[in-house]
Design a protein that fits this description.
The chain is an alpha+beta fold. It has helices at residues 3-13, 69-77, 80-87; strands spanning 17-20, 23-25, 33-35, 43-46, 58-65, 91-100, 108-116. The mean pLDDT is 90.
Length: 123
């Protein structure tokens, strides 16, 4: 199962509406390429507003493996469209997956969530 598939199931289980933004473009040489919105958007998600919640009610999700989490964060912070999105009320969530667990116990797929905020972007 891919990180995107895991994330779709994870978010839908929480009652969120999720749409897929990335797609396969077979026309890019030599063998095609997977393309996402603005170079980072894999999923578009909406959720119910909670009055005490500080997170956006609509957000773009970057799905990745645990090993690539920090690289994806750095990439997003360098994308002008990401900054504009966040500064105008949209959220960006990096959701990465890795097998985790205590030594000697069964390792389970675990999600790591990190929200990108306007103050994360350098001025």
């Amino acid at each position: 199962m891919t990180p995107t598939q895991r994330t779709l199931a994870y978010l839908r289980k929480q009652g969120m509406q999720v749409g897929i933004l990335e797609h396969w473009n077979p026309h890019v040489p030599p063998h095609g390429i997977r393309q996402d919105l603005w170079g980072f958007g894999d999923l578009l998600c909406t959720r119910t507003v909670n009055a005490s919640d500080e997170y956006a009610t609509f957000f773009i999700v970057q799905c990745t493996s645990g090993a690539n989490h920090s690289a994806r964060r750095l990439k997003i912070l360098g994308i002008p469209e990401a900054r504009v999105w966040v500064e105008n009320g949209g959220g960006i969530l990096i959701l990465s997956w890795a097998k985790r667990g205590e030594r000697g116990n069964v390792k389970r797929w675990t999600a790591r969530e990190e929200w990108i905020r306007a103050e994360d972007f350098q001025r």
